[in-house]
Amino acid sequence: MNNNAIRDSSTNISRRRFLVASAAAGGGLALGFHIPFSFAAAETKTAGEEVTAWVLIRPDDTCVIRIARSEMGQGTRTGLAQLVAEELECNWKNVTTESPTAGENLARKRVWGEMSTGGSRGIRTSEDYVRRGGAAARIMLLQAAADQWKVPVGELSVSEGVITHAPSKRTTTYGKVAAAAAKLSPPDPKSIQLKDPREWKIAGKPVKRLDTSPKLNGSQVFAIDVKQPGMLCATIKACPVFGGKLASYDEAKIAGRPGVRGAVKVNDATVAVVADTWWHAKTALDALPIVWDEGADANQSSATIAQRLEQGLTASEAFASRNEGDALKAIDGAAKKVTAVYSTPFLAHSTMEPMNCTAKVSADRAEVWVPTQNAEASLAALSEASGVALEKCEVYKHDLGGGFGRRGGTQDYVRQAAAIAKQFPGIPIKMIWSREEDMTHDFYRPLSQCRMAAGIDENGKLVGLHVRVAGPSISGYLTPSVVVDGRDDRQLQGYYAKPGDAQLGYTVPNLLIEYALRPTHVPVGPWRGVNTNQNAVYMECFMDEAARAAGADPLEFRRALMANHPKHLAVLNAAAEKADYGKPLPAGVYRGIAQFMGYASYSAAVAEVSVNPQGKLKVHRIVLALNCGHPVNPQQIAAQIEGSVAFGLTAMLYGEMTVENGRMKQQNFDTYEIMRLAEMPKVETVLVPSYDFWGGVGEPTIAVVSPAVLNAIHAATGKPVRSLPLKNLSLV
Amino acid sequence: MQTLNVNGKLREVEVEEDTPLLWVIREQIGLTGTKYGCGVAQCGACSVHINGELKRSCSIKVSTLKASDKIVTIEGLSPTSSHPVQKAWLDLDVPQCGYCQSGQIMAAAALLAKNPNPSDPDIDAAMTNICRCGTYQRIRAAVHAAAGMAKSAGPASPASQAPKA
Fold first, then answer.
1. Cα–Cα distances in Å, from A561 out to A243, A344, A456, A463, A486?
2. Which CATH number fits domain A223-295+355-432: 3.40.640.10, 3.40.50.720, 3.30.365.10, 3.40.50.2300?
3. d(Cα B140, Cα B144) in Å, to the nearest integer?
4. Is A706 in the B-facing interface, judged by CB distances under 8 Å?
5. Under a CB-based contact definition with an 8 Å cutoff, are residues A486 and A318 in contact?
6. Topology annotation, domain A302-347+444-728
7. Residues 648-667 of A with CB under 8 A from B
8. What is the mean pLDDT of residues A547-573?
9. How confident is the model at residue B150 (pLDDT cuts 50, 70, 90)?
10. Of A33-37, A72-76, A147-151, where does mean pLDDT reach its minimum?
C-alpha cells in the first residue's frame, strides 16, 4: 500500500463516520424519497471487490451491478444496469446484477436509497444517483491504475473496462485494479460530471434484457417456487365481505385429513390451514367449516354503490381542484352545450403469480421470501407482524410474477405469512393464496363516475368545461389522514394545472374540475396507471363528443386547445403522422385519437377499428407515441407499450369486478376475463424523446389506449361509449 | 403409490388420486417451472405435454395417468434450452415478468410440432394462454421466428438478432 492510499484510507474512515451520523439523523426507514449521498463501500459477502455500493468487480472483470428496485417484468433491472455501466465504462458483456436485501439497505443506512418500485419511478427517480455511483467507481478504478503506474490520472483512458496509459503503452483491466480502487475514498458525488445522454453508448440502446434465460426453461425461482428445509405450506381465507370478521371455525372437522398440521387464526378476519403440501392445505381449507361475522356491509351491492356515486355527481358540495374563470356561467351562456356522464368499474390486479409469501419466524429472527414491489415496506410489515425487531428481520426479494401496484405499500400478504409462521416457530411456512382469494381480496382500482359539461361558442370554440368526478379515494382508503374534507387531487390525476407530472394538455378559458369523495367499503389501491386510465377515458372521449358538437375534426379541435402545451401537442402530432391521420382507410375501418400525460411522460395514440354488423369489434392497429424524456432502452420501452395496450384493452373489453351481498362476485378468469393473443392488435411504437426531462414508462401509455379505441368505435357506430367494460354493451 | 413418466424419468409418487397433476409436478416431483395461475384450466400457466398433446395440468387428476403416459414439462422441453421456441423467445426478448412463459412456450412448441408453419389465425387459435404483462405481440412474432428456424437446414445458428426497437 503506498502513502497515497494510506492517506485516502484514513480520510475515508472519518468521512464514513460523518455519513453514518447524517444518515441516522435522516431516519432510516422513513417513508418518502431518499437520495443516497454516499458511495462508501463495505465489506461484502459476495466474492469480488465492492468499489462503490453500486459496483462490485471480480478479478475476472465481471462487473456486478447492484439493483435496489424490484423487477416485475418492466425491465428496470436492465435499464438501471445500463445507466450504471454507461458511466462505469465497463464491458456490457461482463455485466451481471444482484439485488441488495432490505435488511442490508437498512444496515448500511440506506446506501441504495429507496427500494420501492411503483409510480413508474424505478428509473426516473434513481437515474441520477446510480449514474453517479457508476461514475464514482470509474474514477476510483482509474485512480487506482494511476497510483499503480505512478502517472497522472489525466493521462489514462478507459474503454470497455480496459484502462490504457497511451504514453507508456500500458494497459490493465478493472478486474486487476478493483482491490486497490476499493480502498480509495470515493469522490464527492456532486463533483462528478455525468455524460450527456446523447453521447451514451450502452444506455439509450436497445440492448437485450439481462434476465430472460431462466424464464425460458423453468429455472427462474419465483417466490411461489421457494423450497426451504422442513417447510410447510399454508393457504388462507379472509371474510368474503370486506370489513367482516372471523367468528369461528371447526378445526376438528379437518383434523384427520392427510398432511394437515392445523388451522390457525391469522387475524380478526382470516383463517389459515397449514399442511405438508399446498394442495393438502387448500383442500382442507375448502372442507373447513367457517362462520363469518359479515358485519355492516353485507347488504352492499354494485347498485347501492353506483347510487352513491351518482349522488356525488350532482351534490352541491365537492372539492374544486381547479376553478379558472367561470365555467358554469360560460357553459350556460354558450351557443351549444354538451353533457355526458361516464363510468368505469372496480378492477382487480390479477397478477399471474397469486399473492404468496414464505416466512420463517423465531423469537429473535424473522425472514420472508417474497414477491414485493417495496422490500422495505415488506421488512416493516414483517417486523410489525412477527414482533421481531427490524434489525433482526430480513426480506429476500424474488422477481415478481406481475406487480401492477398490488404488491407495493399494503403488504397484507406478508403480514399474514408472518402471523402464521409465528405460530410455528422456526418452521418455514409457504403461504399461497388461491386465485379465488387473490381476486376477491384485492385493493381494487377504484370505480368512478364522471359528469362532463362543455360550452361551445358560435365559432366552434370550447369556452367552458366542467368536470366532476365522484368515487372512492385511494389515499382516503390507505392513508386517510392525508385526505382532509374530501380534498384529494390524486383522484384527478391527469387534470392538473401544474406542469411536469400529470398536466392537462388543454387550455380552456373557463374551467372547473371537481372531485366528490364517495367512499365505499371496498378496499382500493393503486392499479397500473392508477387514476390516469379512467380520467383519460372521461376527458378524451368527451373531447371527441365536444368536437362533434362543434363540427370539428377531433384532432383539429384538440390542437386548437394545445398552443400552451407544446410537448403534449408534439406527441399527439407524432402519433397522427405515423398513423397517416386524415388519409383514407379501408372500407369499414375507423380511426380514433387520444392524448394524455402521466408519470411525467406524454402519450398519444391512434387506433384503427372496425365493428361488424353483428356488433363485433376488431382493433386492427394502434400507433402509440411516447415522450419519456430520456429513453434508456428503446426496445424495452416498446415492450412496455405493447404490454400497456393489452392491459388497457383488457380493462376496456372485459374488466369489471362487481359487488353482491357485500362481496366480490367474480372469482377467477372465467368471469374476470383477460384479453388473449387473438385480440391483440398490431402495435406500433413511436418514441419522440425530447431529452430534457426524465419520465416514466411502465404506466403512462395505458391511459390513451381505451379512449383512442372508444373514439374509433364512436366514429364507426355513430354512438358514444360512456360506460365500461364493453362486454356489457351492444355495439349494433 | 403411482408411477409417472416425467421428462423421460419414471417417478414414484404417493398422493391422493384426485390430486391435480400440476401439484404433483410442483410438490412431489419438485419441478416448479410449471405454474399455478387459476386452477380451473383458464390461464394455461400450468401447460405441459402429455403424449405430445398440450394439456392444462391443473385440471388433470393424477389417477387418470398411466406410467406409459409421457409427460413433458418446461424443464424437459430441451436439455440445453435450445428448442427453436426457446431460442426465438430469447432473440425477441419475449418475456416480461416471465410467470406465464413456461406455459406459453409449451403451447408454442405443441403448435409447431403439429403445424410447422402456422398462419396468424392458426396462432390465434392455438395460443390461448393468458399473459397479464401483454407480451402477445412478441409471442406471435416469436412463433413465426421459431417456425422459420425449425425449417432452416442444419443446426440453427446460436447467433441472436437484435430485437426490434
1. 46, 26, 13, 10, 30
2. 3.30.365.10
3. 7
4. no
5. yes
6. Aldehyde Oxidoreductase; domain 4 (3.30.365)
7. 650
8. 98
9. confident
10. A33-37
